[in-house]
Amino acid sequence: MRIAFFGTPEFAVPSLRALIEEGFEVGLVVSQPDRPQGRSRSKLIPPPVKVVALDEGIPVLQPEHPTGEFADQLLAAGADVGVVVAYGHILRPAILSIPRLGMVNVHASVLPRWRGAAPIQWAILNGDETTGVTVMQMEAGMDTGPVLHTIETEIPADETAGELSLRLAELGAAALIESLTLLAAGELAPHPQDPVFATHAPKITRETTRLDWSRDGASLARQVRAFDPEPGAWAVFDGEELKLFGGRAASGEGIPGTVLVSGESLMIAANVGALEVSEVQPAGRRRMSPGEWSRGRAAAVGARFT
Question: Is this structure's pTM higher than 0.90?
Fold first, then answer.
């Protein structure tokens, strides 16, 4: 079975590696263009999937938009099936129909729950106790296609989005291999999603990540974990933006946003209870302990976050 693999970030790497290791013929990799990174934004960095593909000698295409002449390039690749894992572009029906067996997608939730761009973050924000991965047949709708395979897993109470993403990437790779093996044998039985149970996970915005001290401590802790390591939940202290990490709900009372404990940990009053964090990150600097950050600052008990 000849495969065209579409993927960009680290999340997609285990799936690509699994295809190679299991002997599937990956004839083409499609990834997003190299992007500038770092503070200077002067150096172009290749996507993790591209790095793996080049190491394996697999041809790589990086269209700015997967349309136009790209369709001819994909057709020329002669793929039996397309595999999409966190590619980062919506593919039009004309592209989806090019591989002989269509395209399948590895999605980081148990569909139809959390359709959309940020399923991991929204699962944690919502306080879900379980999540998982879904392999589905792609169609024109956003994550609406028939389900081929799912694997579920629990979400530990203190797990961050980054930690959960690593686990789901491995589960997604396993689910993908099982699905393609059954597809090759003609034994795959897709079943439609029930839209009644659909929920949506839209893109994360700056406002989504801002901490609102009128909420309870448990909700704030989930928000901190949902955006760890990127893009980081944030608040304003002394006129400057500060990202908070390592969040957990704590007992405490005070005016919402008020510092209750300041030292090697930082505890801030919420509307109900409090938020305790173990790391902070000032704008333009690295992550550090609250104690390191607060030295030389007015981050004493009674100071206020907004």
Answer: yes
